[in-house]
Amino acid sequence: MAKLNPEQLPQALQKGLSPIYLVTGDEPLLVQESCDAIRAAARKAGFSEREIFHTDAGFQWPQLLQSANSLSLFADKKVLEVRIHNGKPGDAGVKVLQEYCASPSPDNLLLLVCPKLDKATQNSKWYTTIEQIGVVITVWPIGIKQLPRWIDQRLQRAGIKADSHAIDILAGRVEGNLLAAVQEIEKLKLLTDNGMIDAQTMAHAVVDSARYDVFGLVDKALAGHAPAAAASLNGLRGEGTDAMAVLWALTREIRALAALKIALSDGQKLEFVARKHGIFETRLPLIRGALQRLSLGTLRLLLRECSYTDRTIKGMAQGDPWQALLDIVLSLAGVRTLDNRSLKTLLS
Q: Domain ends where: 192, 210, 228?
């Protein structure tokens, strides 16, 4: 029926609901907002029930058909939401989706949520079938060049007008993090009485809220953004953050990566093991990238360095704890600060 981007979705929903929606992309905020808009329109149209399926190890695709064909106790219409973790439903999923698409019930609305799909998947039979009878919403990442325009649109939606200099300041502050940008805009709404934000006001607001987050530091390191991760670590130190809190976050992440590495070598699925370690689905792209970049041997050495850093923080070993933390952060980001032989010598 249609291929849309997130900006086109609200207008399309006002015209009526499609029996099937496929939302695909790797920008969590925009994917979430698109799904929220579809759910809201469905509730308004009388779809009061919602069932969610995760295509993990325990999921069986026939469950979707069973749910679609079963009548509610109160005969309410329902949304069937399927989160396909890898964008590949497999043979069983393809068969079920094609059967469902052959005669979708007006009492059901099917919402499929996938990460970014490659070209081969977009040419597959299940995708083209959904494209013919449903709506595909493709979420593209907002690049650095597009970010100021995106921020300007969000500000206008919030009833705020800002000059280009002010918008550039905010764009530099959020570093491409759309969720952070939305949070900052919500704060700005409280700072303006006339709906106008100039560069000076924006600069003061950014300075007041420019706090460095320990978990943001970890995510930057996992993403391989070494300069940004190092800047965050320096910011945390400047704010007086306890070095032990930073070490705790880094150690927890490295332990999880090592456990995932071992589990994957044993043939287990990443999504299943990640859930056991409390890793949310939205962080899986970061985790996948880090696992590809870091070997199990490197992760084990990093855990030893974490132990050494713990002793320096407690005064039980010589060394600068913040320099040791910087070495861990850079290594996690893929920058080799010491070769393995030198690192083993240091830690011993």
A: 210
pLDDT per position as a tens digit, 209-229: 445 678 888 889 999 999 989
Evaluate whether 134 touches 20 at the Cβ level (below 8 Å): yes
For the beta carbon of residue 307, count every other beta carbon within 10 angstroms.
13
Burial of 272 (0-12, 13-18, 19+ CB in 10 A): middle
How high is the pLDDT of residue 71? 65
Q: Could you give the CA distance from residue 164 to residue 177 in angstroms, rounded to a whole number? A: 19
Which of residues 81, 114, 139 is at a domain's end?
Answer: 139
H or E segment at 254? Answer: helix 243-265
Tally of CB atoms within 10 A around 310: 18
Q: What is the pLDDT of residue 341?
A: 47
pTM to 2 decimals? 0.60
Q: Cβ(287)–Cβ(260) under 8 Å? A: yes
DSSP letters, 27-40, are -HHHHHHHHHHHHH
Domain range for residue 123? 2-139
- Give the total number of structural domains in the chain: 3
Q: How far apart are the C-alpha atoms of 343 and 1, rounded to whole Å?
A: 58
**pLDDT tens by residue, 237-259:** 988 888 998 999 899 899 989 98
**Are residues 249 and 120 part of one domain?**
no
Q: From residue 337, give the alpha-carbon distance in Å to each of 15, 32, 107, 298, 326.
A: 57, 38, 59, 12, 9
